[in-house]
Design goal:
The complex is a heterodimer of chains A (about 400) and B (about 220).
Chain A (H helix, E strand, L loop, with lengths): L1 H10 L1 H39 L4 E5 L2 H4 L9 H10 L3 E15 L4 E9 L1 H7 L6 E4 L9 E5 H7 L6 E7 L5 E12 L4 H4 L2 E5 H8 L7 E6 L5 H11 L4 E5 H4 L1 H38 L2 H10 L3 H36 L2 E2 L3 H4 L9 E2 L5 H27 L3 H5 L3
Parallel strand pairs in A: 3-8, 5-7
Antiparallel strand pairs in A: 1-9, 1-10, 2-3, 2-6, 2-9, 4-7, 5-8, 6-7, 11-12
Chain B lengths: L1 E12 L3 E13 L4 E5 L6 H8 L7 E6 L2 E2 L5 H11 E4 L11 H11 L4 H14 L15 H14 L4 E5 L7 H18 L2 E5 L3 H6 L2 E6 L2 E4 L1
Parallel strand pairs in B: 3-8, 3-9, 6-7, 7-8
Antiparallel strand pairs in B: 1-2, 1-4, 4-5, 9-10
Classes of the chains: A alpha+beta (about 400), B alpha/beta (about 220).
The structure holds adenosine-5'-diphosphate and magnesium ion (MG).
Magnesium ion (MG) binds next to helix 1 of chain B.
C-alpha cells in the first residue's frame, strides 16, 4: 500500500506538488509567525520591565488601590532585611513616589516626582541608561532634578534652570522647594517621559519627611522565569501588612493587551489555515474524483474500503511528512537565528510606546515545544483534509465506481 | 461449482418505475467451463455476472460458490471473496495506471500475500502465454487496447482464481485483437483448467465458447 501510494504521488504530480507546497509554506509560516508573536511579546515585556517596573514589587496593602500617604511602607529597613534572606533576588531598591505641581517661570504641570537611590536604581531600571542630556543623579546631587524629556518640553526649561515644586509631605504637611534641572532621560514610553521626574532620596527624604519610608520596594531577579517561586518565598517571610506582587499583576493591562493580540494573531492564522485546508482538500478531492474508476477497479478486484482509506492516508502522510520535514528545520532555524539576532522593525517602539517598548528590535522566540505543536497542527489539518475525499470515494459501490465516467 | 437458485434483482429508478433485471435465474456453472452469457443489450448479462462475482447484491434467491452462500456476506467479506476466489476482466481494461505491466499482473497476488519470487515467476509465465512478456516494464497507458486487455486477463488469471468473469472483454477491440484474445483465453482454459464465464454479444466470443446461456429481458431463454 505504501509503495502504491508513493507511485500515485509521483504519477498525479499536480496534486502532489500543490499539497506539498501548501503544506511546506503553511508549516513554515506557522512556525515563524508564532515565533514572531511570542518573541515580540517577550521582548515587549522584557523592555517594559527594564524601564521601570520591577519583576516583583512590595507594597503596603492598600497602596495600589488607594495610594497616598496613608499606605506607605513605614519601615523600609525591616522589609529589606527580609529580602536579603530570599534567594533568587539580585537587586532591590526603594522608591518614594509622590504627585505634585512642578512649575517653571512660564509653565506648570502635574508630575510624578520620586525619590530614588541613584546607585541601586541603576541596576533596576533604565533611568540611568536612557540619559539624554546633563547628568544622572548621585547620593549627593542635592536638589538636582532628573526629568523626562517630554516633561522638560512641557515646562519649557533647559539644563540648569530652576523648577519649583509644590506637594504634600509624607505627614500630609505642606512641602515646597526649588529644584534645579540637572539631567533628562528618554525611555521611549511617552506617558512616563512626560510625567516623571526624580531626585536623590538623600535630599528628597528631608523635604518629605520620608526617611525609611517608601511607596514600594522594587526587585530584580536572577532569573525572570522563577518569578512565581521567588514571590512565594518572599510572601512566606513578609509581614502581613505588606503584599508582594509580580509583574504579571503589575502589568495586567499589558499582559491582557498581549493576550488580546495573541488571540487576534491566532484568529488570523486560523482563518489562513481554513483557506489552506480547503485548498488542500479541494485538490485532494479533485484528484480522488478523477480516480473514481481506478478506485472502483481496486475495490472490484479485492481492496476493502479500509485498504482504500489506508492508501489515501498513506498518500497524504508521505506528502505532508516530506513537506514538514523540510519546513521544520528551516522554520526552526529562522526562529533560532532571529532569536539570537533580532531583526529591526522601524517604528515598532513608536507604536507600542504606551506599553514601555523602547526598542525597535524584535527577537523571535525559539521554543521546540511550540514548534512541535505547530507541526502537529499542520499534520492534523492534512489528515483531516483527506477524510471527505475518502468518504466520497468509499460511498461508491464497486460496480458503480468501475463504470464511472 | 457455482449454483444460482431463484435469483431476482430489481433496479429502482426514481420512485415508481422499477426494472426487473433478473427474473428467477436458476443456473449451474461447473469447474473448467468456458461459457457465455449472451443476449441483446439490456437483457441483464452484466447484472447476472456482477451477482455471480459478488460485486452486487441480489434481492432474493441464493448463489453458492462451492459450498458457500455468498448473497448474505457483508461488503468486506464479499471484497475478500473477490480477492481470493475470483478474477475480473472489464470492458475498459481498468488497469492501475501508476503500476507497470508486471506490477499490474502481480497486483492481486501481492495483495493476497504471495512471496515476491513466486509472484515474479508466475507473472512471467502468464505474460508469456498472453504474449506481453516484452512489455512487462511499460506503463499501461503506453500499450495498445489489445495489449492492455491481455494485461487485464493476465492479472485476473495470475492468482489462479476459481473463476474468471469477463464482461464484454472484446467490446473495445478490433476483430484481429478480439480473435487473438479469445484464442489465448481458450488456451488458458484448456492448459490451466481455469473456469471462465463471459458476458457478451460479440460474434468472436460466441464462436469461441463451448456453452451459451441465452438471456432475454432478465430471464434465461436457452442454455
Ligand atoms: N445501476 C442501475 N440502475 C438502474 N437500472 C439498471 C442499472 N444497471 C442496469 N440496469 C438495468 O437493468 C437492465 C439490465 O442491464 P444490464 O445487466 O447492464 O444489461 P446488459 O449487460 O445485458 O446490457 C437494463 O434494463 C438496465 O437498464
Ligand atoms: Mg453489459
Amino acid at each position: 500500500m505504501f509503495s502504491l501510494a508513493l507511485k500515485n504521488i509521483l504519477f498525479y504530480r499536480g496534486r502532489s506538488i500543490t499539497t506539498f507546497v501548501l503544506t511546506f509554506f503553511s508549516a513554515l509560516m506557522f512556525i515563524v509567525y508564532v515565533a514572531l508573536m511570542d518573541g515580540s511579546h517577550g521582548s515587549m515585556l522584557k523592555n517594559a520591565l527594564k524601564v521601570y517596573t520591577g519583576a516583583i514589587e512590595i507594597y503596603k496593602k492598600g497602596y495600589r488601590e488607594e495610594g497616598g500617604n496613608d499606605y506607605l511602607i513605614e519601615d523600609v529597613a525591616s522589609v529589606e532585611k527580609v529580602l536579603s534572606k530570599v534567594e533568587g533576588i539580585s537587586d532591590y531598591t526603594s522608591r518614594y513616589e509622590t504627585y505634585g505641581l512642578l512649575s517653571s517661570k512660564d509653565r506648570s504641570t502635574a508630575a510624578m516626582v520620586a525619590g530614588i537611590e541613584p546607585q541601586k536604581e541603576r541596576k533596576l531600571s533604565e533611568l540611568y541608561s536612557t540619559l539624554v542630556s546633563g547628568e544622572y543623579l548621585s547620593e549627593n546631587s542635592g536638589n538636582c532634578l532628573y526629568a523626562g524629556v517630554d516633561l522638560v518640553k512641557k515646562l519649557q526649561v533647559k539644563l540648569g534652570d530652576e523648577v519649583s515644586f509644590v506637594g504634600s509631605a509624607s505627614d500630609n504637611s505642606f512641602a515646597a522647594d526649588l529644584f534645579k534641572l540637572c539631567g533628562t532621560f528618554r525611555t521611549g514610553a511617552f506617558e512616563f517621559d512626560s510625567t516623571a521626574a526624580f531626585l536623590s532620596r538623600s535630599y528628597f527624604d528631608e523635604l518629605m519627611y520620608a526617611k525609611n519610608k517608601a511607596s514600594y520596594i522594587t526587585i530584580r531577579l536572577d532569573d525572570l522565569n522563577k518569578v512565581d517561586a521567588v514571590n512565594e518565598e518572599i510572601i512566606k517571610h513578609l509581614d502581613s501588612q505588606y503584599e508582594s506582587v509580580t509583574w504579571k499583576v503589575l502589568m495586567k493591562s499589558m499582559v491582557q493587551a498581549m493576550q488580546v493580540d495573541s488571540i487576534f494573531g491566532y484568529i488570523s492564522i486560523v482563518l489562513f489555515f481554513v483557506v489552506i485546508f480547503f485548498v488542500i482538500m479541494i485538490f485532494g478531492f479533485i484528484n480522488v474524483s478523477s480516480r473514481v474508476r481506478e478506485f472502483g477497479t481496486l475495490r472490484s478486484i479485492g481492496l476493502t474500503r479500509g485498504k482504500i482509506r489506508l492508501l489515501l492516508f498513506n498518500e497524504i502522510f508521505i506528502l505532508s511528512t516530506t513537506a514538514i520535514l523540510l519546513a521544520t528545520p528551516i522554520g526552526a532555524y529562522i526562529a533560532y537565528y532571529f532569536s539570537l539576532h533580532p531583526f529591526v522593525m522601524e517604528g515598532i517602539s513608536e507604536t507600542y510606546k504606551d506599553y514601555g517598548v523602547v526598542s525597535d528590535e524584535i527577537p523571535l522566540a525559539f521554543n521546540l515545544f511550540t514548534i512541535s505543536w505547530n507541526v502537529a497542527v499542520i499534520y492534523l489539518l492534512n489528515f483531516l483534509s483527506i477524510i471527505y475525499p475518502i468518504r466520497y470515494i468509499n460511498a461508491f459501490k464497486p460496480v458503480e465506481a468501475s463504470h464511472h465516467v | 461449482m457455482i449454483q444460482l437458485t431463484d435469483v431476482q434483482k430489481y433496479f429502482y429508478r426514481g420512485e415508481s418505475r422499477e426494472v426487473h433485471a433478473l427474473k428467477n435465474i436458476n443456473l449451474t456453472i461447473e469447474k473448467g467451463e468456458f461459457s457465455l452469457l449472451n443476449g441483446p443489450s439490456g437483457c441483464g448479462k452484466t447484472t447476472l455476472l456482477n451477482a455471480i462475482g459478488a460485486l452486487d447484491s441480489v434481492d432474493s434467491g441464493k448463489i453458492y460458490l462451492d459450498e458457500k452462500e455468498i448473497t448474505t456476506l457483508s461488503e468486506d467479506e464479499r471484497t475478500l471473496l473477490r480477492l481470493n476466489e475470483m478474477g475480473f476482466v472489464f470492458q475498459s481494461y481498468n488497469l492501475v495506471p501508476v503500476l507497470s505491466v508486471e506490477e499490474n499482473i502481480g497486483f492481486i497476488m501481492k495483495l493476497r500475500g504471495f512471496d515476491d519470487d513466486v509472484i515474479k515467476n508466475r507473472v512471467h509465465e502468464v505474460a508469456e502465454l498472453l504474449e506481453i512478456e516484452n512489455k512487462l516494464q511499460s506503463l499501461p497507458n503506453t500499450l495498445s487496447g489489445g495489449q492492455q486487455q491481455r494485461v487485464a486477463v493476465a492479472r485476473a488469471v495470475a492468482s489462479k482464481p476459481k473463476i474468471i468473469l469477463a464482461d464484454e472483454p472484446t467490446a473495445n477491440l478490433d476483430s484481429k485483437n478480439s480473435i487473438a484474445l479469445m484464442n489465448m483465453m481458450r488456451r488458458l482454459n484448456e492448459e490451466e483448467g481455469v473456469t471462465i464465464l463471459f458476458a457478451s454479444h460479440d460474434e468472436y466470443v460466441i464462436e469461441s465458447v463451448r456453452r451459451i446461456i441465452k438471456l432475454n429481458d432478465g430471464g434465461i431463454v436457452e442454455d
